[in-house]
Each structure stands twice: as structure tokens, then as C-alpha cells.
Design a protein that fits this description.
By secondary structure, the protein is an alpha+beta fold.
Length: 440
């Protein structure tokens, strides 16, 4: 018997030391859910009381209209209703009492401490720690055990109710969380819909605006219509070449505030005039021409041509553009192919140059390069000398026509390697840097 009581005491201690504190802590952890559940119960209580007051008022109103014989019946119905509402209110108040962690400390720990104390007394009585009569000892022992069991059962009931409350609190928290997530999703969905709608509206406006732009507008250079990126114009190397331009509007509407232009590389010499605007940097030369308006189905010829002088043989890409108030910018490439109007062949290299006509003051760091120049068709042949610092030229090789204008030499003379005569070379010249054609 004593061993059973000891096990019972250990069970009570387990509840007292672990279960009860954990449940109380859980209530504290779900503080937000507890507060929401408390608010819900308070609202339920108010609704029950309000319902009762409303029904009493309604019965009082009806009592004035019914017969005296039925008053007793309505009074009884009113009393039954009042009892029902009071019972529901009492249940709500009971549920509210379980939501207070401080109250649960007393409600749990006192019913657990008391049976533990009773068990200790019962164990002491069972071990004959006292010396009253056996009958008295048996009655006290039985009473103490009974009281202990009743108190412990009440504590278990409280724990069961608190577990139910905790489950409900957790459910309330979870439901609120789901509701919050749903509201967030709805808000995000609404925001996405608004963004998509705004994007669609902007796209529609842009598309509509794009439909209003003129498209059949073309630039013509030297009678070549620039309607794609494959067009090519042939120009002569080291000569002034005119670029005659016109702009054609094939649309049925007027073009307003037009700007046409070119982006040239820096190895072309550009001469402008008239209403051309220009911008130069280390990598490009931008030339613009502005026109106020261009009527429908009109080809406007620009009177002043551009003068272009290529300094290198071969093809170069230039970019053309057309912009206007009612034209989306149109960019197209144009190829300028520079071909020589004459052929230059290395005749003599390493010729000494002099700063005086008597050929006594030799120029240092530079040599003369004599080229045999043959005109187109081979009709004319002549020899010319140019300064250069390059030493890799090979006699008989054809060279390109290229210059470095950052270097220059003033009046210079030389001794002709064939006739040994002293000859005048030039008044002022830049450095010739032409390359062998087979190396280009």
C-alpha cells in the first residue's frame, strides 16, 4: 500500500513539476491568440446579453397585445429563455476564466499541491508515525486518500480544459494567419492586376503612337536610295567627292521638324556648308541637316552637297539617320568604297632629304620615298617624292594612299638617285604612311 501511495505521489509531482508549468507557459506563448479568443468570447457574451434584453423587450411589447389568459404562458417562456441565455453566458465566462495564465497557476497548482500533501499524510499514517487508535487511523487514512483523489481529479479536469483552450487558441492563431495570408495574396493579386492593366494601357498607347509615325521616309545619296544596310557608293581616293542628297516622303501625310545626318569615321575629310551642323570627337564626325517640314509624296533635294575626301583605300561604314517629330528614328548603314584614281608603286626608298637647296643640311629621322604614279588607264606616269619614317617598303610594290598629318616638314630638297641632280621636293608635306596593298 505504501508503495502505491509513493507512486501516486510521484505522479502528482510529475504533473506539478512538468505538465502544469508547460501548459501555463503554452498559454503565455500564444498570447496573441489568447487575446483574440478572449475578445471573441467577450463579443459572444455581449451578444447573448443583448439578445436577452431584446427578447425581454419584445415579450413586454407583445404582453400588451395578448389576452390575460396567455400572460402566464409568455412569462414561463421568458423565464426559460432567460435561463438558457444565462447558462450560455456562464459557459462563456467559464471559458474566459481559462484564458488567464495567472488564474491557471492557482487553479492548477493548488489542486496538485493539496493531494500531494494528503498523500504525504497518508504515508505517515500508514507507517504508524502517530499513535491514536486503529479505527481513528483508518478513518483518517481513508478520508485523506479520498480528498487527495478528488483534488487530483479536479486538477486533471482543469488540465484537460486548458488543453482544449490551447488547441482552440492555436486554431484561432492559425485561422488568423491564414486569413492574413489570404488578404496578402488578394492584395498582391490586385496589385499585379493593376500593374498588368497599366502595362497593357501603356503598350496600347505606344502601339497606337507607333502607328501614327511615318515610315516610308528615305534618304537618297548620289541617286542611291538608302532603304537597307547593304547600299554602297564608290568614291575616289584622295579626291574631293560630292555626296548629293535628297529626302523622299512616300507617305500621305506631312513630316515635321526633320533632321537627317551622317556619322563618319575620322579617316574621312568632311567639308560642310549651308545649313549643316557638325560635331567632332576622337572617334566620329556627326553631320546634321534640319528641314522644317516635308509635304506628302515629295522628294526634297538638298542644294548644298557634302564634300568627302577618303584618306584610305577600301570600304568604310557610315551611319545615316532620319529623325522627326512624327517619325521614329530611322538608322541605316551606308558603305563608302574608296578606290584610287591612280596607282602608286615604290620606285626608290631611303632617299636623303635636305633643309637647304645646296643639299648640305641633312634632315634627321626622316627619308624620302619616291613613288611611281600611274594615272587611271595608264595614260600618264610620273614620279613624286614624299617624307616617311617607315623603313619596311619594298621596291616595285604597290602601296595605298595614307597619311599621318600629325607630322610635317617644311621646304625640302633631295638628290635624284637616277640623275644625281639636286631637286626641290616640296614646300610643306605630312608623313606618307601608305601600306603595301597585299598587306591590307
Amino acid at each position: 500500500m505504501i508503495e502505491a501511495l509513493q507512486l501516486y505521489a510521484f505522479l502528482i509531482l510529475t504533473f506539478l513539476g512538468f505538465v502544469a508549468p508547460i501548459i501555463t507557459i503554452l498559454l503565455s506563448i500564444f498570447r496573441e491568440g489568447t487575446q483574440k479568443l478572449t475578445t471573441r468570447y467577450e463579443i459572444t457574451k455581449s451578444e447573448k446579453q443583448s439578445k436577452l434584453d431584446q427578447l425581454i423587450s419584445q415579450q413586454q411589447t407583445n404582453a400588451k397585445k395578448i389576452d390575460v389568459t396567455e400572460i402566464g404562458k409568455h412569462i414561463q417562456e421568458l423565464k426559460d429563455l432567460q435561463k438558457t441565455v444565462k447558462k450560455e453566458t456562464k459557459n462563456v465566462m467559464s471559458e474566459l476564466s481559462y484564458l488567464n495564465p495567472q488564474k491557471q497557476i492557482f487553479r492548477l497548482f493548488l489542486p496538485l499541491c493539496f493531494p500531494f500533501l494528503c498523500v504525504v499524510i497518508a504515508i505517515l499514517i500508514g507507517k504508524n508515525s502517530y499513535s491514536p487508535s486503529l479505527v481513528f487511523k483508518g478513518d483518517v487514512f481513508s478520508f485523506v486518500i479520498l480528498i487527495s483523489l478528488i483534488s487530483f481529479c479536479y486538477a486533471l479536469f482543469v488540465i484537460w480544459k486548458m488543453l482544449g483552450i490551447i488547441v482552440e487558441v492555436r486554431k484561432t492563431t492559425f485561422d488568423d494567419q491564414k486569413e492574413s495570408e489570404k488578404e496578402t495574396r488578394d492584395l498582391l493579386s490586385t496589385l499585379v492586376e493593376k500593374v498588368e492593366k497599366a502595362t497593357q494601357e501603356v503598350t496600347t498607347k505606344v502601339d497606337k503612337g507607333a502607328q501614327d509615325f511615318l515610315k516610308e521616309i528615305f534618304l537618297t545619296v548620289n541617286d542611291v536610295v538608302i532603304d537597307n544596310d547593304q547600299k554602297e557608293i564608290t568614291v575616289l581616293l584622295n579626291q574631293n567627292n560630292e555626296l548629293r542628297m535628297s529626302i523622299k516622303n512616300k507617305e500621305k501625310r506631312i513630316a515635321k521638324n526633320i533632321q537627317i545626318g551622317f556619322v563618319f569615321p575620322t579617316d574621312l575629310i568632311i567639308e560642310t556648308g549651308g545649313n549643316y551642323g557638325s560635331y567632332f570627337d576622337d572617334e566620329s564626325q556627326i553631320i546634321r541637316h534640319e528641314i522644317s517640314f516635308l509635304h506628302a509624296n515629295t522628294n526634297l533635294i538638298i542644294k548644298k552637297p557634302l564634300i568627302v575626301t577618303p584618306l584610305k583605300e577600301g570600304s568604310v561604314k557610315i551611319k545615316t539617320f532620319i529623325k522627326a517629330e512624327n517619325i521614329q528614328p530611322i538608322y541605316r548603314n551606308l558603305t563608302l568604297k574608296a578606290i584610287p584614281s591612280e596607282i602608286n608603286i615604290v620606285y626608290h626608298l631611303g632617299v636623303d632629304l635636305y633643309a637647304d637647296s645646296a643639299c648640305t643640311i641633312k634632315r634627321q629621322g626622316v627619308k624620302g620615298l619616291i613613288l611611281e604614279t600611274i594615272s587611271g588607264g595608264g595614260i600618264e606616269k610620273k614620279f613624286r617624292i614624299f617624307p616617311t619614317t617607315k623603313t619596311n617598303y619594298i621596291k616595285g610594290k604597290r602601296v595605298s594612299w595614307e597619311w599621318n598629318l600629325n607630322k610635317g616638314w617644311e621646304q625640302t630638297w633631295y638628290i635624284d638617285p637616277d640623275t644625281k641632280q639636286k631637286k626641290y621636293a616640296w614646300r610643306e608635306a605630312g608623313e606618307f604612311i601608305g601600306r603595301h596593298i597585299d598587306q591590307i
